[in-house]
Amino acid sequence: MKRLPLQMTFFSQVHPVASTIYFTELIVCLLLFNHVIVALAEIVSLIICGFYYLGVKSMTQQLKFGGSFLIMILFFNTLLNQKFQPILWHFHWGVITYKFSYPAFLYGMAMAIVLISMLFIFALLNKILTPNRLIYVFSPIAPRLAMLVSISFSLVANFIIKFRRLITLQKTRNVDTTSGSLIIRTKKVLHIFEIMLQDSLASAMETANLMDARGFGSTKRTHYRSYHWQVADIFFISTSTLLLLVTVYIRWLKIGWSGSVANFTTIFQPTDVLPIGFLLVLFLLPIISEGIYRACTN
Amino acid sequence: MHKLVSIKNLSFAYPDQPDKVLDNINLTIYPGDFLMIAGNTGSGKTTLLNHLKKELMPLGNRQGQILINDTPIDNLSKLESAQTVGYVAQDPQLQPVMSKAIDELAFPLENIGCPSNEIERRITELTNFLALDQSLNRAINELSGGQLQLVNLASVLILRPKLILLDEPTSQLDPLTAQTFLNVLSRIQQELGITIVITEHRLSTISGLANRMILLQDHTISFDGSPTKGIEKMFQDERLRYFIPSIPKLFLTNHIPISTLPISVSQGQAAIQTDHLKFTAAKPKQSLLSETSKPLLQAKNISFTFDQTRNVIDHLNLTVNRGDWLSIIGKNGSGKSTLLSLLIGLTTPQHGKIRFENQLVWKLKTVDRIKKISFLSQTPSLQFTADSVRQELVVQADQLQLSDPASAIKRVTKQFNLTKILDHNPFDISGGQQQLLGLAIALMATPDLLILDEATKGLDPYTKVFIGKILKQYQQDGVTIVMASHDMEFCAEFSDHCAFMFDGHLNTLLSTTAFFANNFFFTTPINRIVHDQVPSALLFDDINLASEGR
């Protein structure tokens, strides 16, 4: 099935302020619960959204990265939480003992999933809240900062392209970052950064002059992009805020949260169904709204 | 008549420099002028142009007066300056600051405080005028060089300035894209009455569009008049003669008496017909290529894709014989640079094999490869690695493990005129000098194969010929050259074979004469005007005047 272009989706047409509030709500929700099954519900919803909005290729790459990140966080969590029972496996080497306990595993799993979910949210945010939408949201608060953020987006993209070209072209000068020991490779990469800095400084000066030449700083800036609130925006943000308030109340009832690693003894507790239900609706709200938006087509 | 710009007794010297770059310049520019500034590299063209834009005025010792609309340039507010004088730089990549074309167009209007609806109106109007409406929502880094330069021009034009200054705006573009860009400029001048001031090395198209030309010699204006008369004046200077487009050069060299010097192809053809001029082929140049040369580099059925959606290189086959000079011609974005990157082993194709001296090129050790294959990218600064020009050469000699580094450094320093800039930072020298340094680094090894990506980009015509002659010498000494280029006349003059890059593969790999003689669009101006009489003629010295008819 051919994927709908991102700009044609309901989510990317939501008012920038509504999108910003929605993403903030998602981040808050991620921090409210720490049970594995709740975190799993959150990440599964985000993966569905990711496949829909970012595409299979991009999401598959993120999942691969997320997988290795998960293993790393799991390892460190089990390493740092050695005193809990039951122990599933242990390892002795001289005076060093490593205990792999079930609570530490579950806690590490929950933390890893929450962190990876956070990365997925930022990946979505990056696509939905484009630089000009970000400027629109943050300009009234900090106009210069918003402008700088927007310019940074473009400069970072150019920086990455240039860095890749440098890595390739410096091989013609025998600076090959893929060969040699780790120290030698690190030195080569640092040297390439140095070249990059020299080259970028020279061009940044010229770019700044050309910005001046086009009237930058001559008077108070205005904004081209103007966004108007639609009924759908209000419906979307009201629903999401209502769902957030409900989940905050559930959290207040101490559901879906364990205060100590020692309490991580089971993946599923019957009360977890409550936050899972509401969170699934909140995290999948963009997809649900897409359906309603399509259903309302004339 | 109202004066848009008035320069009186302007002299300028850069800090700590004893010599003046501009010496007693007097110039008046009238509304609606299309003025081109010609002159040698280093004659002060860009410095003069930058003096017309307050924000870009160089620091240094300045005397004299510059008035814009009868107001001293220093008294112009930032807002007035932005709305009166626009500036388009040489490198299209330097100007954009936003990520999308539409935001780049809105940027200057937001700077001057335009309300949202006015911005939208101006963008709609301008993008339709320049046929940019289809590119509006594209990311800046997805645009080709030509489209990007058009967006840069639009981003200046949207402020509705009285005067637009352009510093060699087409030097990074292929000839057809450059022609399109200059035609847009001509429309802007003719339909909107906006004054254009431009510096250019490629005078062939611009001379036909401009109504006025000034010539900078010895840091002052030595000529101010029509482009035709200006070119006649340039012919008197031995070095400036290289700058003259080939059609007027043909008429001036052969002393053909004619009322108006032809510049364009149509004018050249008309002059030949009217005066019944007859040309014969000059003695053909001797090819250095031996009939029995063996293959040095072979690419078999190679395919390469960046994003798995489209093959940039598609089942390409190529054999380069030892001692050959092959030029690969094609538009911006046709995949020439990608192909060169594959041929040198910097990138590995997904399919097919590339063999250099029967070894897979990407399996060669980096240190061995740089001794046998040298590469100059189209952005030489990305290959620099040291703090001074001298240090660049020392590092390269060291990497190549040369037995006598001092004499190699001395040789290339002399060959590429680098003596005066040995202690300069390679990132601070001019684009042309960076190109020369890049070549010097590439040729320190005396490689078997030299791969050049747009080696003449942005160079003035004199330096181009200078480089061409040096490369020819290296070819005679046994170096095989593969070059990607937009420069038809350079390819026609120096290469042995040419091929066209299109749709991911090379087609029509022919000897240079056969290649250009059979082309219709991608050929030299001389071939276009005398093709009926001497089909193999590519350059002005390929033909002799047989009779003047009258």
Main sheet properties of chain B: 6 strands, mixed
What's the CATH topology name of the largest domain in chain B?
Rossmann fold
Shape of chain A: flat
Supply Rg of chain B. 25 Å
* Cα distance spanning the termini of chain B: 43 Å
Strand content of chain A: under 5%
Q: What are the low-pLDDT stretches of chain A, counting only 5+ consecutive residues below 50?
A: none
Low-confidence stretches of chain B: none
Q: Largest interface, per-chain counts?
A: A-B, 51 and 65 residues
Transmembrane segments (chain A): 21-53, 65-84, 104-125, 145-163, 231-253, 273-293
Subcellular location (chain A): Membrane
InterPro entries (chain A): ABC/ECF_trnsptr_transmembrane (IPR003339)
Organism (chain A): Lentilactobacillus kisonensis DSM 19906 = JCM 15041
Give an overview of the whole structure:
The complex is a heterodimer of chains A (298) and B (550). By secondary structure, chain A is mainly alpha-helical. Chain A has eleven helices and two strands, in the order ααααββααααααα. Chain A has two domains: 6-139 and 223-297, no CATH class; 143-222. In chain A, 68% of the residues lie in helices and 4% in strands. Chain A is flat, with a radius of gyration of 24 Å. With 550 residues, chain B is an alpha/beta fold. A six-stranded mixed beta sheet of chain B has the order 6-7-8-3-9-10. Chain B is globular, with a radius of gyration of 25 Å. The interface between A and B is large, with 51 and 65 residues.
